[in-house]
Design a protein that fits this description.
The complex is a heterodimer of chains A (323) and B (263). With 323 residues, chain A is of the alpha/beta class. Chain A has helices spanning 17-33, 48-52, 72-86, 97-110, 218-228, 236-240, 271-274, 306-322; strands at residues 4-8, 10-11, 14-15, 37-43, 61-66, 90-93, 113-118, 120-124, 127-134, 139-145, 149-153, 169-173, 184-191, 204-208, 231-234, 261-265, 282-287, 300-303. Chain B has seven helices and 15 strands. The chains are: A alpha/beta (323), B alpha/beta (263).
Chain lengths: 323, 263
Amino acid sequence: MAGILTFALHYEGEINKNSQGAVSEAAKLSQQLGTDNHVVVVGEGISDEAASSLGKYGATKVFRVEAPEGLSQPVIDSMAHLFEANGYDYALFGGGLLGFEVGAGLAARLNAGVTMEVTQVNVVDGKLQAERPILGDSSISTSKYKDRGIIIGRLNSFEIVESGSGAAEVEDVTVQLSPQASQATMTVRGEQRGADVNIEDADILVAGGRGLGKAEGFDLCTDLAKALGGAVAATRAVVDAGWYPYAAQIGQTGKTVAPKLYLAAGISGAIQHKVGMQASENIVAINKDANAPIFEFSDLGIVGDLNKILPKLTEAVKAKKGG
Amino acid sequence: MKICVLVKEVPDAAVTKRIDPSTGRMDRSGEKNLNPYDTHAIEAAMQIREGGAVEVSEIVAVTMGPESSIRALHKAVSLGADRSIQLTDGALAGSDVAATGYALAKVLQTESPDLVLLGQQSDDGECYTIGAVVAEHLGMPSLTQVIAMDVTGEGIKAERQAEYGYDTVQITLPAVISVGDAINEPRYPSLKAIMGAKKKPLDTKGIGDAGIEADKVGEAGSKVVCGDYKAPPQKAGGEIIEDEDTNETVEKIVAWLDERKLI
């Protein structure tokens, strides 16, 4: 039977939110295609509860493979095995790093077409077509597949919908892993570095990027956040540079937030950052480069030197609140 | 250890990118730069060589593209590669990610590298994915977005940010690794290296030289058909303030925030 096979990422008893979204999306598409909605989970000791919970999002069956977790190769092997056994036409992935790796590898294995950063999937004449923003989101391209198609979503593009009637049937599958799967071993997974900060519950976030110039530049953000009664967030670039803790990172590999106010200081607004914060209610950006992409999706943009603006803004906010 | 670095010529960031409506392909006429992410991959190769933990016999830069892509190779060689290979053939035009990865893998097979490095993403059409496609064809493990590498005789200890925090993965060679831009600060090439780049060995191959099957590449060999380009839904443009008088600017920001009850 044809249809879609969706990969669901598992970590410590939970299914990834983007995977829940992908399964929800696949449920909708499967209904239009008139097929079952199959999902695969790959990992070590994944519980019945975690696997069957995908039924909530419309999975009709969940295949569970016992194999090393968090690495692409075992998932490619598992999905290729299931494609062989069940003859799917499409594979679907939510956003996230592993989806890119698995999807691309699977496309090579299956000789299939692959599209990444997909924001919408449509059923046209019984086939799937994937829409993907290109050229810095200035245009949208539609992918059609000559044969089988691998569709990798952009982060947060597929809405989580609890359309299912409860627990899904879970079937254990044994998969022969490829030789290269044994060449990679996860020694540490999900390590948190730096202080633990909670940015997901904050109504106001002051986020700092490379434009702060140095680690000490974050003091400007901290002061403003304190004055506004908010928390401080950061881009991947500055977290990788060690200027701010990982727990405060927004974007593709960090957290997704939607505060009432997102004030971005010295952030250019790369796609990888945008996907983690574009749902914010009000976006204010301060950047010295008038051509920074962030001005294309900010509600208020200030072209100027943050070293001059932030301290005065902090004082003005304090004065306003005090008065 | 022999290292191959995949590089690519991309449009200069200053050149506006566009799709040629008649072919549906990226208009590459404004291209002239080595993909900035690839300079991190070359630097990573150089640091392995200079680190001394393993002996690096050779660093080979490999590209696929039109004849002009030779400029990316010259840049790669000026940054430290010993020699370069250019895969260029009219039959390759219009290849999608999967076909491009297949073609590059065939060239790499002729070199039998212990390690293949590439930049985590290119500035144009193909994102994160090419490394995983190449690895699959070579039967090697693939790891993308690596931000730290520790190379020893046993293999590579690689770190990266994944969905739940930092992952550390031990890999035995041969392997394909895509590096992120946080992995290093690429050096600037010396004037001497720039001048000498054109003298380093360059091997130009067509698809026949690499055993690439013609029906697996180009437009015909690609499994995705892209088209129906359209403009994205426009978000109403935000208000822009050019900061001239900072006191005035700050006043405007505070008023804007106040209006929305954010203060």
